[in-house]
Amino acid sequence: MTNSAIVHVIDDDRDVRESLSFLLDTAGLTVRAFESGVAFLDALPRGERGCVVSDVRMPGISGTELLARLREMGVGMPVIIITGHGDVPLAVEAMKLGAFDFIEKPFDDSVLVAAVEAALREDERREDDHAAKADVVARLAMLSQRESQVLEGLVAGLPNKTIAYDLGISPRTVEVYRANVMTKMEAASLSDLVRMAILAGAVSKSGD
């Protein structure tokens, strides 16, 4: 886990905020506390790493409304919702909106810490995926138009002869372009090349 990741604790109850902050700080995590969803959104810089721990019922913006706002803004930080027994339906709604987890009160400290650590690992994995995608997209941009056409044929599962026929070139020329594509994309195998194309969105997982 990177040290730059921050746990954003949001609760309108001061005692709860301080208690959660102390717990997470004791676990070695960096914490910022906010008294409302509005205060959190006002202070949130774009691209910040970490996760959110929010009560589901708050004045102004509820936990589910906050989650919806974050998704609209394109903020992908994992969100953990804390809920009372009677608020479980709201927590389920939050899960449908993309919440990472919900924890029902009362809960053991270890349960919350474990959930936060899992959320931070998920955020780090997402960040790694973004970086990998950006790298693949950059490699794709290095391909010539013809190399891109050959790549499309390869990820579609077409044999060299079919690609050659479709492009009006010889199978031998397709082999040359294929080798160039593999080199520029730094692909170890055809399956590796297809995986990269899927990651970059150049082809759908279903092949549609």
UniProtKB/TrEMBL annotation:
SMART domains: HTH_LUXR, REC. Gene3D superfamilies: 3.40.50.2300, Winged helix-like DNA-binding domain superfamily/Winged helix DNA-binding domain. Keywords: DNA-binding, Phosphoprotein, Transcription, Transcription regulation, Two-component regulatory system. InterPro entries: CheY-like_superfamily, Sig_transdc_resp-reg_C-effctor, Sig_transdc_resp-reg_receiver, Tscrpt_reg_LuxR_C, WH-like_DNA-bd_sf. One of its GO terms (biological process) is regulation of DNA-templated transcription. GO terms for molecular function: DNA binding. Pfam families: GerE (PF00196), Response_reg (PF00072). Residues 136-201 form the HTH luxR-type domain. Coiled coil: none annotated. It comes from the Bacteria. PANTHER family: DNA-BINDING TRANSCRIPTIONAL ACTIVATOR DEVR_DOSR. This is Two component transcriptional regulator, LuxR family. The lineage of its organism: Bacteria, Pseudomonadati, Pseudomonadota, Alphaproteobacteria, Hyphomicrobiales.
